């Protein structure tokens, strides 16, 4: 039985021995079944749900065609959610990439204590966002939080960080940068390691200053890594932010921190509009897909340079 | 960078110092001092939230809201921790999270190593197509799966079970990709030689490939254990009974209940963070070097 499947699967003229055939089939058949059931079927199911008025409690889920998508296009809250998502994504990614680049550039020449420094910058990466958000919410508390208490020493009135429509999103973005900087720094350091030392030595002999070294050698050669960090950051950003925002503001105040991931969860599992929530997840899917294709294109360009 | 070996290797310092003269040497020294100052200030910013968490967790309620802020409590207390253990069923949360994380990580790493080996070291028809089809699921955001997977879980009667937490995440694309990359560093001749000696395919995988993949293996185990331990959204949606909560969901619920008792909340956060941080600091050399090793290069 297995023999015939293998024959069909790998082709009879393959150079593999029967034992190898069997090995591959035994490993791949369950894998492919798993992916079909858990990774591919749910996508079609999600699209099917998005075409219905689907409620967990209702027995009937009437077919509504593309109405859920039309509703989204007319929903001003959805536009606000998309704006918030983009705000968090772009501000967080670019600021985070910039701060990490600075840290990586000044951490790179250091030998003594560099392991300890890397570890410290990496601590928040290892911490669950739920726990980090709990701490940050406490530090940003208006009356008793550490930040406002420290600011009061220099005469600044307490700022309601997480209760203000102006400050809530920047607070969440800063916390996100704090949480991700350690990982990005390590990616940059790996990239910096790949730059041949001869370049620097040659430039130093020619009398280049350290700023010239950074601007004329390091940054151009690090460009592929920077674009990798930016694009993966933006792609991840569109579907991210759920845990921090769920813990710190719940999307408020006045929906000013309501991002797509939270909005989908809220519609699906709090308000029980699963059809509507599925249509949002498809909008997210489309955005991520387009960005990924852009990344493939850009990376190819970078390699050619 | 160039000044790296300047500090590290004395013999090179001599030749360079001759080339450049003493003023350059001093310039570099000053440069590094500047680096340490900036990095030190940054490190303090990174670590303050943790220190403040630990500090608050040992303060009685009255001290948590007192002004000015104090790093060391006047009357340190462990009552917050006792409260957490009494009210949050911490032992249960630890056990559930550890149990699920270990099982998921074992499955994740074993299946990924196996598939990485197959896609990296065998040649068969359709190999690349299958690999890239599996890999393509990497880009799909979890939010797309959230609703259909939840409905499927309810359908098969797995709602509110550990099975629902583990089964949908047995296979994982990222580790599979990393192992496949890593296979290129293992010479194929080794596998062929073992075959000629009469070793079976599973024997080769378990006794040759897995031990040779140690570097990738440790890093990926550490990362997957961390990700599985910190997982939140799926357990939040699937698990409804308190005795099956994992630590992140438990902490989120706990914060909701004790919202204004900052000492107790920070004790809860410390208890959620400390075991995993301790584990990671113990193996951190592997992790940080492994990120580089497994081929994370832009």
From TrEMBL, chain A:
Its main location: membrane. The chain crosses the membrane at residues 23-49, 86-107, 119-139, 167-190, 225-248, 268-294. It is found in: Cell membrane. InterPro entries: ABC_transporter_permease (IPR051393), MetI-like (IPR000515), MetI-like_sf (IPR035906). One of its GO terms (biological process) is transmembrane transport. Pfam families: BPD_transp_1 (PF00528). Residues 82-295 form the ABC transmembrane type-1 domain. One of its GO terms (cellular component) is plasma membrane. It is a multi-pass membrane protein. Keywords: Cell membrane, Membrane, Transmembrane, Transmembrane helix, Transport. Belongs to the binding-protein-dependent transport system permease family. This is Sugar ABC transporter permease. It comes from Caldilineaceae bacterium SB0661_bin_32.
TrEMBL record, chain B:
The keyword Transmembrane helix applies. Belongs to the binding-protein-dependent transport system permease family. The chain crosses the membrane at residues 33-54, 93-117, 129-151, 157-177, 208-227, 262-283. InterPro entries: MetI-like, MetI-like_sf. This is Carbohydrate ABC transporter permease. One of its GO terms (cellular component) is plasma membrane. It comes from the Bacteria. Residues 94-283 form the ABC transmembrane type-1 domain. It is found in: Cell membrane. One of its GO terms (biological process) is transmembrane transport. PROSITE patterns: ABC_TM1. It is a multi-pass membrane protein. Keywords: Cell membrane, Membrane, Transmembrane, Transmembrane helix, Transport. Its main location: membrane. Coiled coil: none annotated. Pfam families: BPD_transp_1.
């Amino acid at each position: 039985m297995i023999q015939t499947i293998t024959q069909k699967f790998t082709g009879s003229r393959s150079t593999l021995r029967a034992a190898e055939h069997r090995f591959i089939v035994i490993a791949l058949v369950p894998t492919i079944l798993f992916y079909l059931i858990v990774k591919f079927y749910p996508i079609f199911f999600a699209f099917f749900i998005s075409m219905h008025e689907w409620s967990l409690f209702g027995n009937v889920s009437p077919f509504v065609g593309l109405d859920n998508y039309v509703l989204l296009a007319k929903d001003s809250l959805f536009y606000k959610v998309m704006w918030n998502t983009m705000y968090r994504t772009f501000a967080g990614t670019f600021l985070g990439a910039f701060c990490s680049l600075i840290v990586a550039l000044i951490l790179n020449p250091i030998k003594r204590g560099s392991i300890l420094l890397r570890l410290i910058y990496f601590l928040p990466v290892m911490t669950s966002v739920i726990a980090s958000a709990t701490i940050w919410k406490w530090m940003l508390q208006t009356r008793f939080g550490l930040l406002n208490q420290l600011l009061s020493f220099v005469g600044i009135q307490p700022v309601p960080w997480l209760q203000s429509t102006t400050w809530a999103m920047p607070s969440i973005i800063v916390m996100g940068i704090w949480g991700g900087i350690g990982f990005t720094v390590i990616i940059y350091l790996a990239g910096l390691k790949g730059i041949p030392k001869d370049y620097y030595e040659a430039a130093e002999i020619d009398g280049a200053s350290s700023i010239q070294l950074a601007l004329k050698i390091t940054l151009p050669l690090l460009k592929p890594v920077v674009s990798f960090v930016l694009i993966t950051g933006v792609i991840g950003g569109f579907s991210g932010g759920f845990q921090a925002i769920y813990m710190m503001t719940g999307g408020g105040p006045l929906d000013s921190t309501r991002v797509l991931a939270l909005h989908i969860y809220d519609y699906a599992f709090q308000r029980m509009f699963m059809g509507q929530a599925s249509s949002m997840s498809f909008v997210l899917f489309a955005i991520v897909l387009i960005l990924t294709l852009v990344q493939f294109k850009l990376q190819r360009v970078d390699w050619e340079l | 960078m160039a000044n790296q070996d300047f500090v590290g290797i004395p013999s090179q310092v001599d030749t360079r110092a001759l080339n450049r003269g003493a003023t350059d040497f001093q310039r570099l020294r000053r440069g590094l001092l500047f680096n340490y100052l900036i990095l030190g200030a940054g490190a303090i910013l990174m670590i303050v939230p943790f220190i403040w968490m630990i500090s608050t967790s040992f303060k009685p309620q009255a001290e948590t809201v007192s002004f000015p802020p104090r790093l060391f409590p006047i009357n340190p207390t462990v009552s917050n921790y006792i409260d957490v253990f009494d009210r949050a069923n911490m032992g249960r949360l630890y056990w559930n999270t550890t149990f699920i994380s270990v099982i998921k990580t074992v499955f994740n790493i074993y299946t990924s190593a196996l598939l990485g080996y197959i896609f990296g070291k065998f040649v068969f028809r359709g190999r690349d197509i299958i690999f890239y089809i599996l890999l393509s699921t990497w880009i799909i955001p979890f939010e797309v799966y959230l609703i259909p997977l939840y409905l499927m879980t309810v359908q098969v009667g797995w709602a509110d079970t550990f099975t629902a937490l583990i089964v949908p995440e047995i296979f994982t694309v990222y580790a599979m990709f990393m192992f496949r990359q890593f296979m290129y560093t293992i010479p194929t001749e080794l596998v062929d030689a073992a075959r000629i000696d009469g070793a079976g395919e599973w024997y080769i995988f378990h006794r040759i490939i897995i031990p040779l993949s140690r570097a990738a293996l440790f890093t990926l185990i550490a990362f997957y254990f961390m990700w599985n331990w910190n997982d939140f959204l799926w357990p939040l949606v699937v698990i409804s009974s308190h005795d099956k909560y994992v630590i992140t969901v438990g902490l989120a619920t706990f914060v909701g209940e004790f919202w204004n008792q900052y000492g107790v909340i920070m004790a809860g956060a410390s208890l959620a963070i400390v075991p995993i941080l301790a584990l990671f600091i113990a193996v951190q050399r592997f992790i940080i070097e492994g990120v580089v090793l497994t081929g994370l290069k832009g």
